[in-house]
Amino acid sequence: MFIRPLFPLPQRFPRKALVLALGVALMPALAHAADVGTVAAPSSATATAADASKSQSLGTVYVTGNTVNTLAPSAPPLEATQPTSVIDERFIRDALRYNANYDDIVKYSPSMTVTSPEGPGLGKNEGISLRGFQDGQFNITFDGIPFGDASDFHHTTSAYFSNHVLGQAQIDRGPGGGSTIGNATFGGTIGLRSRDPSLVDGFTPYLTIGSWNTQAGGLSLDQHYGDTGVFLEASKESSDTFLKNTEDDRGHLFAKVVTQVSAETTLTVVASANHETQNTVQGATLAQINAHGWRFGLDDNPALQTYKGYNNASYRSSFDYVGVTSRLGDWDIDNKLYYNNFDHWANKTKDATDDNPADNGVTFYNAAGKKLGKSSTDVPGKQTDAQFHAFGDVLRLSRETGPGTLQLGAWFERNLDDRYSRPMDFSTGQTTGTKYGYAYNYQLADRTDTIQPYVQYDWHLTPSITVSPGLRYSRAERTLDATVNKSDTPAPLNAKATYDAWLPSISLHDALSPTWSAYAQLATGFLAPPIDVIYINGSQDLKPEQTRNLQLGTTYATGDLSFGADVYYIDFVNYIAETTIATANGNESLYVNGGGAIYKGVEVEATLALDKRWSVYANAAYNLATYKHSDVQVAATPKLTGTLGLIYGAKEGYFGSLMTKFTGSQYGLDNTTDASGNTVFANSQHLGGFTTADAALGYRSNSGPWGAKGYSISLDVNNLFDVHKLIAYAGSQSVSGTPLYFGLAGRGVFLDLSIKL
To answer: Full-prediction pTM beyond 0.85?
Structure first.
């Protein structure tokens, strides 16, 4: 029997590291408070603002993240009960190109690793990890609503939101308390918040031009009608991207209407529609990079599998909700009814990285699975489509009762998923059939029903100490109806499996002073198995993957200094692994609950205001993620990451930043298969560490020519020093087994211009 992990998984927390981290955590006690400029240290006014925010949105949203009187890429809030970083709208607008994606927004935060081989905000090969947890192992929410692909809970947010419609990002590095909802809570949560209508009405046309023939433009409208505020956005972007022949084209429509129905009731309506097309690349071998350079992507030769015309995709999505916040008696109510859909259609050759014509060849079959003929030169591939429709509701209730605040709520969702894949001869544009007699490689529909009720009580033991026990029940029921199952031997299959768990948590928050706080948290996280498990296991249930988390931290914030530090220990259990077992019918694959892994680390971040406009930002993180009972490091998990930046910000006039990001060495693989077919846990495909620098310089005015209400012009440079490194292992070629890689996108220069009329 051999075991292969379905996800990269995360042992002993080093005593020296713990002592060091706790020592660092005490540093705020030595810091002094001072006022700088017009933004004062946290006060009762700040607390009032926070309370007001809670009455409008009962999700865990921190409005006091950045108290420093200058710009910062992220900052820890004083109210946090787990390691948290908040990125506000000022940094999103000033330091990033207009049409950047969410991964560009969060990449400077502690323990974040981001790869964008096609350039910033371009393409669909973005890679993102949080403490080594990969996409699909952590949550992403939009305005407090969880979303993700029902099959494996990964996210394609670049097909939903550009940074121009986002107002804030909040990274919670942990499973949260009882009130934290989502599909993959143990890996943390990236919370995206949409922009509110601007206080200044008007039209804002904007454009971006830059490297690799990147052209983008858009128009936004902010308008108020009595107690109703409206924000409308339309944008279009096209780019050749850094990798050749991987052209990307996308369009976004976004609308947000906020109506103050009464003194205590607010109605919010959000609607969006998005479409993107791209020639898709899957990596390159070292030989291809050496022969063609770092920009090698796809070819122009239709005789090869690497031909761009055979590898293209279309993405369509929407995200819509109606939200009501109100007060009914003693209860604060926050309810969001939503609809989310996503459609990914694609043509793909058998191996889009294989430029050897000898590996071509197509076999044709009839409806009975009988071989009809073969062409050794035709290009083989497949046409696929995957789409889901998610309907759900998020209800949050809160009231003061006794010596604290009671929070109740629930998340309900039904996700309907349809997928197919049919084999193609791209040289002729014909379908080929399969040797099993089916026209499709697979053809299936599945449904995922999710329910997560929760209760949490924030118990104020003293005016400064709050203890928050919480309990959430998470249940995911998957139903599969496959005309042709997605398995090694395709066949019809109807199956159902249910995964559930009780998730307790408790946190302690101590407001040591108006500028200094500390916290501790014990919490459990949950992740339901992906739909692939049912393909193989049928209705045989597995335990959901879970984590047990211990986190200690502190935050300190004044007008001149923001500081946060934490230590964490995460025990990953019940991880899902694929195994091969011997049966009377031969070897068969089966998914089982395997062992686990341990994640442990230290994180520190700080922003120091040098004066009213200049600030220095820095963070550093150490994360050791290894499989239990071994020293094998979890793949795609660098031990060290860090950021250092110099930022200049002003409400009017010049603004700019110089940010550097260090990503330590890592491994592309954490297991291999030996000659007997057994899985051997061992690290391979070592990738060296690298440092990149990004720069931005701009000018804004609150007035302009021809009666304009303001304008902004900026120059953004990514990978300033044009560093070229291998940044990710992308698998291996199907025929040769040669390793594939993604490289760091070269220097990109982008000019942004906007004017408000």
So the answer is: yes
